[in-house]
Description:
two-stranded antiparallel ribbon; mainly alpha
Amino acid sequence: MKKTISLILGAAAAVSMIYSCTPVLEQESPSTFDESVVYSNYSLAEGTIFGICQVFGETNNYRGRFLPWYGFNTDIEWYNGFGSSSKPYDGKNEIASYGITTNNSQMNLDNGPFNMMYSAIERANLTIEGLRKYGNIESNRDMAHLLGEALTLRAMIYYDLTKAWGDVPARFSPVSSDNMYVAKSSRDVIFKQILADLDEAIAYLYEPLESNITSRTDRVNKLFAQGLYARIALSAAGYALRPDDGAVGTGDGGSIRLSSDPELSQAVLYPKALAHLKNAIASGKASLVPDYETLWRNFNSFDLAAGKEVLYCIPFSDGRGRWNYTFAIKNEGANINGFSFSQGGVVGPLPTMWFKYDSEDLRRDITCVNYGWEKTGDITPAGIARWYFGKYRFEWMDNNPYGGGNDDGIKPIVMRWSDVLLMAAEIENAIEGPDAAAKGWLKEVRSRAFKGNEAKAEAYVDALGTKEAFFEAVVEERALEFCGEFLRKADLIRWNRLSGNIEKAKQDMYDLRDRVGAYDYLKGDIWYKLNDDEESISIWGLDPAEQTAPEGDEWEQVAEYVKYDDVKKSDLFEGKIENICLNNPDQYMFWPVFDITVANSQGYIVNDYVYAAE
Length: 614
């Protein structure tokens, strides 16, 4: 049948989910054009890019399953939903706590993220094939950019698949009757393909603000692709749970190891990744927002202007996406800016995370918030065991398109400039040691955090004299900089620190509960007051310098029975601490391919790791 493209789907090919019970169809309708017309016309071809992105907003894809559930629990973030010793281990808790099963109630869906990501990949495959045939990319820069955009989006989605599932099917050409069903491939095959794709895409893509196409951060640009190359290279050259070579899709239990493919070694990939990062840095087309709070106020107020810190964000429509609904400061239904919000706080920083920051680090009180909104509009302390991400706030949603319900329109950040700087510092240190370049990039990030006390940040970096010390500083800096952005799990996996760091985090929480070690100064006497902005409160008594009553009569003391005084009887009980991982995270770092998808794969997909059928 002659290929046609449906305008109903924004000029994206209407291909059903590959591993669902719905058959793949090629269907003509009155509103279709021959592919040669679509991919030779910029406006129609651009519509196919929008068609790829449309899949992000599908109910159970990035919007409702992948973004709300991938990336925790770690040594800095955890699921707040497990609140009492009698609460059952439900489907949501299983996902967060490394207890997921193949029939998980939240994920075992025929339109779940695994299938929907492949739907987006199919759209990307069609676009890439069409633009190569008809896009005249050698002489039309705009069409070349669209090809680069499709290659980059496909690479990002494949990377997300490997983050969540490990080894998955490699499908880089459109579905046909000859290749409708495919087995899992080694992720090394996928890594090599998408890294090559990004090398090609980078040559095509406009820089931020170079074209009207890249004037907004919800469109792919060259700097994002360069950063994505480095992010994928670090994972490809890092540790992970892997089946034995040649045993993918056979039920192999796997082991934590590096790839045995010499093309994916650090010696090969690190110089390539660093070259891309240095080119991005030398371009001068992005920079840190000077003030950390301003960065997050801009995010919450829908600032999509390119050329600043955010390189790419998920292009949810203004009435789609559940980011703040899931991750913002908890709101029990208070009316803010004319809307009654009710949710947030599903995930938060570990209770110990606030204490990891230097008292002069401005990121601390932006990242870790220990209060929530009551339905009455009052703001009250949340207790020592329950913290929220202050980066995400309903009260900061100026220019608010929110119209009620559970979709807030927030565009989640995929990558920002500080990640480029810290990846460059990490790789440079691995190759050359803590030289001036590596230290300079780390200083940029840390000095912003210590705005007004930059000398302290610079002295800290200058004192890092060995590769080992500098690497440990980068590990810590990424925790402090990106807490609540869900990069940590992939970082811990590639460093082979997932299980070890989570075990250390558990002991740290026990120390907080028992007020020993680093927390032996805590007395349980807590005061709070409403700040002048009337949208936040200050809490007194958590810092070592705050162990006497505060001055002034505006402070209100928290009654002893309200969670702070006897933390052993508070929410920070043993069951909650242990719930951070129901099983060994090293064995359960990846999700299984869920039962519905396996059943519909005609026997091609078999689970590995601990999920293999006995």
